[in-house]
Amino acid sequence: MSHNDVLVIGGGIVGLATAWSLLEQTPTLKIVLLEKESQVAQHQTGHNSGVLHSGIYYKPGTLRATNCRTGRQAMVDFCRAEEIPHDVCGKVIVATCESEIPQLLKIYERGMANGVTCHLIDIPHLKQLEPEVHGVQAIHVPDAGIVDYKQVAQRLAEKIRRAGGEVVTGAEVVAVETRPSEVITRTRDGREWTSRVLVTCGGLQADRVGQMAGCTPTAQIVPFRGEYFQLRPAAETLCRNLIYPVPDPEFPFLGVHFTRMIHGGVECGPNAVLAFRREGYHKLDFSLGDLTETLRYSGFRKLAWKHWRSGATEMWRSWSKGAFVAALQKLVPAIRREDLEPAPAGVRAQALNPNGSLVDDFLILEGPRVVSIQNAPSPAATASLRIGQLIGARVTPKLG
Ligand SMILES: Cc1cc2nc3c(=O)[nH]c(=O)nc-3n(C[C@H](O)[C@H](O)[C@H](O)COP(=O)(O)OP(=O)(O)OC[C@H]3O[C@@H](n4cnc5c(N)ncnc54)[C@H](O)[C@@H]3O)c2cc1C
Predict the structure, then answer these.
(1) SS3 assignment, position 341
(2) Element holding 145 (H helix, E strand)
(3) Binding pocket residue ranges, ligand 1, CB within 6 Å
């Protein structure tokens, strides 16, 4: 039996940032982080677009809006201090036809309200930044950038270990018992860990892990796979940095876009299709339990009923490379089918309310000795260092 002050479940960037923030604030704390995989950052943190988001899209006043902007700066400072490759290269959001301009202007206003540096630019300026892009108007966001979040997560794990904390991999939590004075956490291999406070950052398993810890989830995780292609080297000149479309306001994701990667290459995507398994990275990955749970959930059925048309379009685009290319050609007309080759996918953990609406913000539940992250969608990687501080501030009073 290992006795600890704080136990964190989940070795994604949010769990690691939380453990690190607590240790940075109180170096004497005994902290252990349990991760079920053999390495940290094997799920969302290691399968994302690697974008340092600016905070332009989010509703003013939300946790996403405030923590994205400050979290981006904290992440850039961290990468500088730790000499982790990153590039604040800026991005453009492009209206490709007149009808998209009102929505583009709304995003610009949101950016201004959120204190994000952003500029409306005309076509000659857009062409200077991204010569191959077709558009009628655009926003330039100079503070957006790129980084490798897996590398950031690995560095956080190293720092936690060096500061005396434990990061234990291959430790899947299967049961939690909360007592008035402590929490007992059990892993699949039969080990037991006690702590004064438990923090859960389970990503795609967030609701299940939270429930295990005694928090009644108010929403259920529904997994949405994001599939990518990458540009063949000869076509990489089609994109200099980051090129985004105007997102569909009815749809919670940003639309397929072009992302230069920090270690080279350009990715195109991701789309957003229902994954038939929570950790299902391939089209045919399937779990009867996961899929049944999704289909039986009233929130999912309501969402599917309301958005069946966009859902069907996304499914079609998942199977048809031609449809994927057509979406990209709206932004970069010169792109051809043969310029693209498949790239690894990611799966987003999106919490869905019972009424079918998506939980639009970071969601944190609390019990007397538990803090549980129930929803940490994009831009949670960008904002992770700030989210870690936010969770830390909720843990500290529970330590007494
Ligand atoms: C396709 C895609 C693109 C994205 N693009 C961006 C982007 O460009 N910029 C950005 O800021 N954000 C982006 N995001 C979002 C970002 O990746 C996530 O918000 C962030 O990684 C969430 O981190 P996390 O630690 O909460 O989850 P995860 O990284 O999923 O980590 C959760 C961890 O908990 C572990 N775990 C679960 N259950 C247990 C258990 N029972 N016992 C022990 N361990 C357990 C898992 O194994 C996992 O390692 C993207 C996400 C996806 C999927």
Answers:
(1) strand
(2) strand 145-147
(3) 9-15, 34-37, 42-45, 47-51, 53, 172-173, 201-205, 209, 226, 270, 346-348, 376-382
Cβ–Cβ < 8 Å for 51, 88: no
Mapped onto helix, strand or coil, the DSSP state of residue 314 is helix
In the chain (400 residues long), the average pLDDT of successive 10-residue segments reads 93 98 97 98 97 96 96 98 98 96 97 97 97 97 98 98 98 96 97 97 98 94 96 97 90 86 96 95 96 96 90 88 93 97 96 95 96 97 98 95
Question: How far apart, in Å, are the Cα atoms of 257 and each of 41, 67, 91, 229, 263?
Answer: 23, 23, 11, 10, 18
- Please give the pLDDT value at position 54: 97
Angle subtended at Cα 220 by Cα 219 and Cα 225, rounded to the nearest 5 degrees: 130
Distance 201 CA to ligand 1 centre (A): 9
Tokens of residue 31, six digits: 């902290």
Give me the CATH topology for the region 221-358. D-Amino Acid Oxidase; Chain A, domain 2 (3.30.9)
Return the CATH number of 2-46+150-219+361-399, one of 3.50.50.60, 3.40.50.720, 3.10.350.10, 3.30.499.10: 3.50.50.60
Sorted by sequence, the CB contacts under 8 Å of residue 305 that are 6+ apart come out as 356
For the chain, first and last CA: distance in Å?
23
pLDDT (0 to 100) of residue 234: 96
**Is the overall model pTM greater than 0.90, yes or no?**
yes
Among 373, 389, 327, which residue's Cα sits nearest to residue 66? 389
- Name which residue sits closest to atom 4 of ligand 1, judged by CA: 48
Angle (CA) 299-301-306 rounded to 5° is 95
